[in-house]
Design goal:
The complex is a heterodimer of chains A (488) and B (113).
Chain A lengths: L20 E3 L3 E4 L7 E9 L15 E10 L2 E8 L3 H9 L28 E5 L2 E5 L6 E3 L6 E4 L16 E2 L6 E6 L8 E7 L5 E8 L10 E2 L3 E6 L2 E2 L2 H5 L6 E2 L5 E7 L8 E5 L9 E5 L2 E8 L23 E9 L7 E11 L16 E6 L8 H4 L9 E6 L4 E7 L4 E10 L9 E9 L4 E8 L9 E4 L7 E8 L7
Antiparallel strand pairs in A: 1-5, 2-30, 3-4, 3-31, 4-5, 6-7, 7-8, 8-9, 10-11, 11-12, 12-13, 14-15, 15-18, 16-17, 18-19, 20-21, 21-22, 22-23, 24-25, 25-26, 27-28, 28-29, 29-30
Chain B lengths: L1 E5 L17 H13 L4 H4 L23 E5 L2 E5 L17 H4 L3 H7 L3
Antiparallel strand pairs in B: 2-3
The chains are: A mainly beta (488), B alpha+beta (113).
Amino acid sequence: MTDFSSLPAMQGFFAPTRFEADVYDCEVEGRVPADLHGAFVRLGGDWLYPPKDPTDAPFSQDGYVNMFRFKGGRVDYRGRWVKTARFKADQAANRQLFGNYRNPFTDDPSVKSVARTVSNTTPLAFAGKLFTLKEDGLPYEIDPKTLDTIGQWDFHGDYKSETFTAHPKLDPVTGEMITYGYEATGLLSQDLFLYTIDKTGKVTREVRLKMPYVSMVHDIAVTRKHVILPVFGYTSNLERLRAGKVHWGWDDSKPTWFGIIPRDGEAKDIRWFKGPRRAIIHTFNARSVGNKVVFEAPIFDGPPFPFFPPIDGSKWDPTRARALIRRITFDLESKSDGYTEEILYPQPVVDLVRIDNRYLMQKQRYGYMGYADPARPFNQARAGNLQGRVTNCYGRYDFDTGKMSSSFFAGDVHSLQECCFVPRSKDAPEGDGYLMGVASNYAEMRTELLIADAMRLEEGAIARVKLPFRSTAQVHGIWVGESEVPFA
Amino acid sequence: MSALTHTPEGAAPGDAPAAAILTRREFVGAALIVGALAVLPKWAHALPAGAGAQTSAAASPGPAPAPVVSFHMDQPYVDYTGTAEPFIPPAGAQSAASIAALDDALVFGTLRL
């Protein structure tokens, strides 16, 4: 019998939803811009069955893909489970067969040969196809019209890594995808395979690299000339997996490493830079300037996730789980393996950051992200004691001025998930477009998609697309233009 | 804007341990402990001189911390150290009401610690 009642973090607003949904012509407050054609595609997780171990990380939730489909000023919603091999195995057994996050030692013996990925992190539109991604397995291809799961995709057999990433980079000039998989040759391996895949989906380049230690390489950055690979203190080993723990633990003694390799280089060309402990989960962007590589990201001083605790048994420290916008500059002419780090903005932000993707691999002016503004009103009577702990604002950070130049307030019972920038047109200047993202409305127990003019965030939402229920929590969401995949 | 130059062996200023922040739960816990003169090692330094000598309870361990449902980056999580600020939904509201109904004993009893 399925029972979530004993799991305190899965109750109320955070209870699993466990249904697939279609909402035709959603209720909208305001006006949906008529020039938005395509879909805001979101990917996150939901529990089909309760975790085997209540201490498991939420990142083990089964993948759930959903989209707000925009056409002619109307919005439809569709949500579907990502029907992975793991989902199907659990469904057939009527129970959870898989154990802790990325720890096959905790699985039921019957699923030893079943792919473990729940494919719950990032949607991707590439080469005319729609995919769901997670870093512990191959992508799943999704039918963009129905959101039905088609199956795993290995790029015609030419992608050899056992793993992929949730953050491949699409070159806005060539249409190529720069992507990778770490733990590429199996559980706990130090191998990272780096790939270039052309815009038709054909693998054109593979480089096999060794990492300094087993680490969560969740995101990378790419310039027109280089690839930057961050390696930091989330690490793992056989001992902790045999003990039944989740894959990652934080090791404070591990230095941060950055590997920098030319996009056309070989494994021997990688250069490693070393610095003090940091955590880099997501990145804004990077660029090559002469013999320097400039990398910008929200960077933590310590481990950001309470469910991947320190390996020394110390308690997780929320004061170190604050991301600050930083710039790191690597001098490729220097003989030192050090680098320069600047804190660009002193206030913490949510590290789910975005830019106008047309500016990937070159200098961008604006970055977009959520943050908590405790000065904004919060209705505790209707939404609980989350003051200061909700993401109540989106901000536009101006890298030229160093200021949060514009901000959007979601509401006094809301918390925002990751935003997405959509250019007003193909040729619109940087920053001219829409900022959209989903908010949880804690008082009314439902989800809203908020759309704002990215040049006038202070004016608030120009449209609120209101779902009559709680949609699953998103990890990442992307805008997919009408012509990128066959929606119809 | 501030800049740090990292050298491989150099300890950056940002490496200094963050100052401890007393959470509400820690504060309440400390007050109760001091009141009962049940001195946990963690709080021993905060007691008046001689307070430890007044009680032999200093050598006995305190109660195990009860897990707390807290909230981080828009998701609830269970803090096993019991030191996080608990998530308290509004009384009578439908938002997460069932979390409010859980007491520490129930949470403690349902988790494998």
